[in-house]
Amino acid sequence: MARVLSLIGPPGSGKGTYGSLLATRFLNASFVSVGDILRENAAGNEHLASVLRSGALVDDALVNDAVMQNTENRAREKNLVILDGYPRTGPQSHLLAKWPVGLRPSLALQFDVPYDVCTIKLLGRRKCSICNKSINVNGVDVLGFDMPPMIPESGACKVNCNPDLDWNKRDDDTIDTIRLRMEIYHKETTPVLQYWKERRRLLSFVPYNGVKDIDKLKSLVEARLHSL
């Protein structure tokens, strides 16, 4: 049965980027983005789409069912499943008790990134409508962090895509929505962190150098998983 790693971090902390990169570093691993799952489901559900646009949290039972189904599908063929952003609330943590024992996360990885850094990164997020590549036009050089912009220097997006026309900003990446999302995150995630601390299954990491720290992060996660 696959091991499951849960990622925790505020909006803009980069947990999705680090999660997908970690999946490429581990043998036979799969990455599950909870945000992408919900946005896909919202395509035919206007109520869900409205909730996502507002920055408010989606119903816990709905999120739990969607994530468990995706995790179960991937666990059949993978050695490691990485969950981006689940559980995110106290009630979601307790819903893990309803998961099959083999599917429950073995470890939670917290990305400890300050508000100012997250805000800079969120305002710089872009998605290429042509090649679907994730891009960040903002660099960070504050509070000891050294993160350059994540802009394609080669490949199809560099050659075929127009940044002014094809690199799109998400509708919910605005100052007001970011502030709301941060407030919700800190309120709802405190009991989640406590849940993992009580079980001694929380690993915290500060990505001062952004994606350049990915191999260091991989080694820390690997060592902790092996110790469990």
From TrEMBL:
<protein>
    <recommendedName>
        <fullName>Adenylate kinase</fullName>
    </recommendedName>
</protein>
<dbReference type="InterPro" id="IPR033690">
    <property type="entry name" value="Adenylat_kinase_CS"/>
</dbReference>
<dbReference type="InterPro" id="IPR000850">
    <property type="entry name" value="Adenylat/UMP-CMP_kin"/>
</dbReference>
<comment type="similarity">
    <text>Belongs to the adenylate kinase family.</text>
</comment>
<keyword id="KW-0547">Nucleotide-binding</keyword>
<dbReference type="Pfam" id="PF00406">
    <property type="entry name" value="ADK"/>
</dbReference>
<dbReference type="InterPro" id="IPR027417">
    <property type="entry name" value="P-loop_NTPase"/>
</dbReference>
<keyword id="KW-0808">Transferase</keyword>
<dbReference type="GO" id="GO:0000166">
    <property type="term" value="F:nucleotide binding"/>
</dbReference>
<dbReference type="GO" id="GO:0016301">
    <property type="term" value="F:kinase activity"/>
</dbReference>
<keyword id="KW-0418">Kinase</keyword>
